[in-house]
Design goal:
Oligomer: single chain
CATH architecture of the largest domain: 3-Layer(aba) Sandwich
Mean pLDDT: 89
Largest sheet: 7 strands, mixed
CATH superfamily of the largest domain: Vaccinia Virus protein VP39
Helix content: 40-55%
Structural class: alpha/beta
Number of domains: 2
Number of strands: 7
Distance between the termini: 30 Å
Shape: elongated
Strand content: 15-25%
Low-confidence stretches: none
CATH class of the largest domain: Alpha Beta
CATH topology of the largest domain: Rossmann fold
């Protein structure tokens, strides 16, 4: 939703892109007249790609490798005019099969954005069955989570589940596959990715910090891709007395955008502005 991002943040002074990725939003913002962009990402590959892509903007762009929950520890940021979160996994990460985020290409079952800590394979093979079922239900909103967890445990007793193909096959074997329907493993993969990267904990820690960074009149934009994220953002915007919500209902991508980029179909776009009185 680049058009909406530039509509609400274009032409401002300093904008922090909390989820830099390959630098697409940062490039659009700089091209739309933002004076400078600070890009944050936990993935060193993303930092390198975006830095190369945006080299032509000179000192108007700089990148920092951080979890976005750690942003208050960065003493180089003062009051800013905008903060952007584009949550979830980036297209760059999805398209890199070896990262193990997707179920359409076989790869090691990894899913770590920063290559640190336990992998998805560790969770799949080591968690007790009930914890695994609860994780898939909570983070994937998967109604067949118990059946899937039971199948995973049965299969891992035979051999450790190490690849995306293995896991996807176990899920399909547990719940079946409807022709023409969404892949039955998509919710399980989403749940594991969220758990591996502690995405909801990161968001809960980072969003209040982002509001702290804003100057009066500064805006925070959040693009989320599932109801757990969007619900949290909605509640946070409503509860924070420093903020005025500019999008009473979330904006969604146009049909044309979804046709160009099917991954955008579930996006929800919310904006809030810090009031002058809050400062």
């Amino acid at each position: 939703m680049v058009t909406e991002v530039t509509e609400f943040l274009g032409g401002r002074g300093i904008v922090v892109d909390m989820t830099l990725g390959a630098g697409g939003h940062a490039e659009a913002l700089l091209s739309a007249g933002v004076r400078s962009v600070v890009g944050i990402d936990r993935d060193p590959v993303a930092i390198a790609l975006a830095t190369g892509r945006l080299a032509g903007f000179g000192d108007r762009f700089r990148a920092l490798q951080h979890l976005f929950s750690e942003i208050e520890e960065t003493d180089t940021l003062g009051p800013v005019d905008g903060v952007l979160f584009d949550l979830g996994v980036s297209s760059m990460q999805l398209d890199a099969a070896e990262r193990g985020f997707g179920y359409r290409q076989d790869a090691p079952l990894d899913m770590r954005m920063d290559r640190e800590g336990p992998t998805a394979a560790d969770l799949v093979n080591d968690l007790p069955e009930k914890e695994l079922a609860d994780l898939i239900f909570r983070f994937g909103q998967e109604p067949k989570s118990r059946r899937i967890a039971s199948a995973i445990v049965r299969n891992r007793h035979k051999a450790r589940i190490e690849t995306t193909d293995q896991l996807a096959g176990v899920v399909v074997g547990a719940v079946g596959k409807r022709p023409g329907g969404p892949h039955p493993a998509r919710r399980t993969f989403q749940a594991l990715r969220i758990a591996v990267n502690r995405e909801l904990e990161e968001l809960a820690a980072a969003l209040p910090q982002a509001v702290d960074l804003l100057a009066p009149g500064g805006r925070v934009v959040v693009i989320s891709y599932h109801s757990l994220e969007d619900g949290f953002v909605k509640r946070t915007f409503r509860a924070d007395e420093r903020l005025a919500t500019l999008t009473k209902k979330p904006l969604v991508p146009s049909r044309e955008e979804v046709a160009r980029n099917p991954r955008a179909r579930s996006a929800k776009f919310r904006v809030a502005e810090r009031s002058a009185a809050a400062a």
